[in-house]
User: Fold this.
Amino acid sequence: MTHSSAMEERFCANPHCLVGRWSVTLCSDVNQVWRVISCHDDDPYLVAAPSPLCPCCGDHLLTPFEVEGGFADGRQQEEGPLFEFVRHLR
Ligand SMILES: [Zn+2]
Assistant:
């Protein structure tokens, strides 16, 4: 088994997105193709882009670090879309 890249968890911050949580794997360093699977275990999508995009709505997918960074950055935005989005995941 030669898995060169591990599966990463990514989040779509679009409040209107139906999925929100994805698992992405970089398939090819050359062509930058991402294999994106929803948290609902649907069939995987292949996304050709420099960074993974949400197959559902086309938004840039955030890493867990980026999501947390958003919290640390603006505490007054606790009721903002991102907060609603994260609460929606639980
Ligand atoms: Zn989305």
